[in-house]
Amino acid sequence: MAATVTSKHPPAPAGLSPGDLLPAGRRFRLVLVLGFLAALGPLTIDMYLPALPAITGDLGATAAAVQLTLTGTLAGLAAGQLLIGPLSDAVGRRLPLLAGIGVHILASLLCAIAPNLAILGTLRVLQGAGAAAASVVAMAVIRDLYTGLPAARLLSRLMLVVGVAPILAPTVGGLVLRWSDWRGVFLVLTGVGLALLAAAAFALPETLPPNRRRHGGALGPIRDYGRLLGDRVYLGSILVAGLAVAALIAYVSGSSFVLQDVYGLDEQQFALVFALGAVGLIGATQVNVRLLRRWSPPQILSRALLAGVAGSAVLLVFALTGFGGLAGVLVPLWLVLAMVGLVMPNAPAIALSRHSEAAGTAAAMLGAVQFGVGALAAPLVGAIGTGAVAMAVVVLGGMVAAALTLWLVVRPRHLPVEGFETAVAVAH
């Protein structure tokens, strides 16, 4: 049986999180493993993006129908987390994680031999459900070990590893398409799943000891979800995270058609442009670590969403007028991606700081909302069209909705900041 991190240490002193008691080398390995686990979902989503036009032609489908396979993946990620989160609170983190990665491996292998779009779409739902285990357990482990500002800092570092996925995934997908067809992408995802299964089995300890597990029976998860839904700040924070992800998914789902079909980029050029946008997103997550030395997560979140709304409004204007051509679309789009990079660590940090007793369930609802709202964004872009305007409309809508939710529901100026202040004092 794997060792349990928290059981090896006494309770953390005031102002410290349990994870602060871990040796530096062990913390580094933990972040690395958690980052690769959290990256499984983005890898599953992004690696086949360069192949979307090829799938459209090969399976004789419309662009909107092929985009629904992306929606299926997001739906699987959302629904899977709602099941796996409470399960991980009841039986520990490792068992649901290993089972979920196994499901992802099987689904990826079957996607490679899918004969039509209907079967491919169904398998993508199953693939997403398997990847959900990696996403929710990674977040729950962070909450097991950290809270407040330390959690926000760790999430920022985690995004550095997670951010490699959107950079590498389309590039790897484009390279695979040079020697294989779109089915080869799913064979590569099968190999990725096998590698992550081995890493999780041998390198990730159990962070939820038996005395902290939930034993409420079948009604326990329902009570936990009810309590979470009754927390205005938690609910508003996860909606902010989900709506920001919706803006990101609108870009992800529409970019291959906009950049390749409208602006004429080939598969490798698209992968490069996509990677540059991901660099901006990752860079923002790392700048966030420094920003946290001066401002709290709610303060950073407020300013990031304001800038994100401004950037997405400029994107829509340039898309409507054609001003600046390709650069006129990419520059404001990259600004929006950077602001999403600031939202991604801070909104979850606020949400997860409130429910340590059900960290898996809280992380599950966070992930479900993120991917569930994102699942709605992908077909919405396809329904409006395949041009830059359609993508820009949904990006702007997501950012405006996120900002309104923050200011009207979360109300960051009224949040208690004691936990963040304590973490700041310890950090300095």
UniProtKB/TrEMBL annotation:
GO process annotations (BP): xenobiotic detoxification by transmembrane export across the plasma membrane
First-listed, main subcellular location of the protein, grouped into a coarse class: membrane
GO molecular function: xenobiotic transmembrane transporter activity
Gene3D superfamilies: Multidrug resistance protein D
InterPro entries (UniProt xref): Efflux_drug-R_Bcr/CmlA, MFS, MFS_dom, MFS_trans_sf, Sugar_transporter_CS
Residue intervals passing through the bilayer: 30-49, 61-85, 97-119, 125-146, 158-179, 185-204, 233-252, 272-292, 304-327, 333-352, 364-384, 390-410
Highest taxon in the source lineage: Bacteria
Source organism of this protein record: Paractinoplanes rishiriensis
Keyword DNA repair attributed: no
Residue ranges of domain Major facilitator superfamily (MFS) profile in the record: 27-415
GO annotation, cellular component aspect: plasma membrane
Pfam family, one: MFS_1
Compartmental location: Cell membrane
Keyword hit for Cell membrane: yes
Protein family (similarity comment): Belongs to the major facilitator superfamily. Bcr/CmlA family.
Mode of membrane association: Multi-pass membrane protein
Keywords on record: Cell membrane, Membrane, Transmembrane, Transmembrane helix, Transport
Protein name, as recorded: Multidrug resistance transporter, Bcr/CflA family protein
